[in-house]
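To: structure desk
From: M.T.
Subject: fold request, one chain
Message: Could you run this one when you get a chance? Sequence is below, nothing fancy, just the single chain.
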Amino acid sequence: MMEMFRTIGLALGVAAASVSLAEQSGRPDDLTLTNFLSGPNNRWAFSHVRELIPTVNIPHDPGRLMRLDKSTTVSRDLLLEWRGEKLSLDEIASQQYIDGILVLKDGNVVLENYYGQLKPNRPHVMMLVTKSVVGILAGILADKGVIDLSKSVADYVPALTSSGWGPDSLRTLLDMRDGADFSEDGSLLLQDCAVGWSDADACPANGPRGGYEFLMTVDRNEDNLGHFVYKSGSTDVIGWVLEEVTGEPLAQLISKYI
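Reply: Done. C-alpha cells follow.
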C-alpha cells in the first residue's frame, strides 16, 4: 500500500513539474493545430515549432562556418523615425511583434536583438524564407548540370504529369508564373490539412494525406500561366523535383550544398 502511495505521489509530482515547465515556457493554454499559425499564439509557436509538429533537422558543416564578429558600437536604445514618431528599436519591435533583428555591416554584426519567445539558441520557423533557400539550391544544381530549368515538371516527376504543374518548365515555377490552380487563401489550407499543419473543421475527412499526394491533386488554370501568382505549392514541387533527380531528401540536399 505504501508503495502505491509513493507511485501516486511520484506521478503527481511529475504532472506538477510538467505543468510548471509548460507555464514557464509561456505556452498558451488554448494552443492547437487549428490556431498556432495565428496571433497571439503564433508568437510562442514560431519559436517552439518542434514541440507541435514533426520537423527535420538540417545539419551544417562545422568546417564551412563564417565567423561573424559582434560590434559594440550600436546601442540598443537606437532612436528611429517611425510613422511620425521618434521611437527606440525595442519600442518598434514591441509594437510590430518582431521576434528578432540581426543587422550586418561589412561582415560584422552591428545589431542583434531578440524579443518574445526567440532566444539566440532557439530555432525559429522560416516560412517564406524557405522559398529562397530552395531557389538557391535549384540554381546550384542547375549550374552543376543536374537539372535543366527549361525542362518540364513532368519530365522529372511523372507522378505530376496530370497535375496543374505538369507541363510547365522549372524556370516558370521558380518565377511563380506557372499555370497551376493554387491559391494561398484556399489551396494552402488544404495543404496544411494534408501535411498535418492543421486539424481545422474545414479539413476534408477523406482528403489527401501527405504533401506529395496533395500536390498531385492540384488542377490546372491556364489564366495563371505567364502571370506572377504567389504559390507556396510551386516551391514544394521544385523540392520534389530535386529529390526525384538526386535521390536524396530535400533537407539533406540543403545541408550538402548550402
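Reply (cont.): Residues 1-18 have pLDDT under 50 and may be disordered. Let me know if you need anything else for the meeting.
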